[in-house]
């Protein structure tokens, strides 16, 4: 393997690790760690789209959204599948499927609220910085499954 291919392989491994660390910080509810995973300052405006939310732009709005999610989610776990990484010199594009298991605040007397599964396809854009790969943009979109009525071969009305 020549030096160029070795560097590309190392970059892909670093981006994959940065992507995994982003989701792990969210699972742990570690807002400080999660904040450190995003591009610092406003040189390049960060953006985020959570499923069903409008576009959020700027570090303040993006990080507040994660604080809100963490405050209202007792448990969340991500199982990433279909991870694909494409890159140029200083920008990496990660697409993946987020298989999410989450639970909200518990009802009276329960240890945890009901667990809910959700399937989201996500695009994460990373930029190379002196401190490693940082998130520039995250976009999550829910996967809508066909209903049983549509699976029976009939045309939906």
Provide structural commentary:
The protein is of the alpha+beta class and 157 residues long. It has a single domain (3-144), classed as Nuclear Transport Factor 2, Chain: A (Roll), CATH 3.10.450. It contains four helices and six strands. It has helices at residues 3-28, 31-36, 59-71, 148-151; strands at 47-49, 56-57, 75-87, 91-103, 115-129, 132-142. It has a six-stranded mixed beta sheet. A hairpin with a 6-residue loop joins strand 1 (47-49) and strand 2. The longest helix is centred in the first third of the chain and has 26 residues, at 3-28. It starts with a helix and ends in a 6-residue tail after the last helix. The model is unreliable at 148-152 (pLDDT under 50).
CATH class: Alpha Beta
Return the CATH architecture. Roll
Strand order of the largest sheet: 2-1-6-5-4-3
Assign the structural class, choosing from mainly alpha, mainly beta, alpha/beta, alpha+beta, or little secondary structure: alpha+beta
According to CATH, the fold-level topology is: Nuclear Transport Factor 2, Chain: A
Report Rg: 18 Å
The helix tally amounts to 4
- How many structural domains? 1
What distance separates the N and C termini?
57 Å
Number of beta-strand segments:
6
Can you tell me the residue ranges where pLDDT is under 50 for at least 5 consecutive residues? 148-152
- What share of residues are in beta strands? 35-45%
Secondary-structure element order, N to C:
HHEEHEEEEH
Largest sheet: 6 strands, mixed
How helical, in percent, are the residues?
25-40%
């Amino acid at each position: 393997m020549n030096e160029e291919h070795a560097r590309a392989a190392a970059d892909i491994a670093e981006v994959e690790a940065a992507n995994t660390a982003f989701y792990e910080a969210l699972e742990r509810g570690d807002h400080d760690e999660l904040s450190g995973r995003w591009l610092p300052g406003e040189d390049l405006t960060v953006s985020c789209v959570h499923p069903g939310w409008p576009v959020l732009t700027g570090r303040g709005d993006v990080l507040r959204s994660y604080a809100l999610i963490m405050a209202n989610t007792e448990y969340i776990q991500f199982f990433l599948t279909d991870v694909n990484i494409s890159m140029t010199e200083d920008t990496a594009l990660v697409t993946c499927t987020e298989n999410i298991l989450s639970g909200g605040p518990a009802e009276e007397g329960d240890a945890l609220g009901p667990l809910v599964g959700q399937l989201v396809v996500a695009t994460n854009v990373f930029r190379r910085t002196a401190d490693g790969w940082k998130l520039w943009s995250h976009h999550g979109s829910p996967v809508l499954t066909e209903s049983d009525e549509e699976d029976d071969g009939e045309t939906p009305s």
